[in-house]
Amino acid sequence: MSILNSKYLKPFKNVYIIVIVVFVVWMLFFDAHSWLFHHELNQDIEELEYQKEHYKNEMAKDDKAIKELSTDEGIERTARENYYMKKPNEDIYIIEYQDSIVKQSEDE
């Protein structure tokens, strides 16, 4: 039995099948609009959509902070809580719990 008369090579003797196989391989891997190229673009689109959602959430947080800081009470509360500012005749006491104190190593 010769290699050219093999039952596995019989379909490839037909010119139409050869052309179709070459066309499919070309379109899947080598063309400018190939499946590989589209797969990479789809991954980029998914990543950009994730970033879009992340930035939308950040914008919502910022809008909430802006709305809070638009009133005098909000500004005063932020100044007291975050920057430890006080009124002229006030004393501020910062209470730290044992869990929140960072332990220093004994080597220092």
Automatic annotation (TrEMBL):
Residues 38-72 form a coiled coil. Keywords: Coiled coil, Membrane, Transmembrane, Transmembrane helix. InterPro entries: FtsL/DivIC. Pfam families: DivIC. The chain crosses the membrane at residues 12-30. This is Septum formation initiator. It comes from Winogradskyella endarachnes.
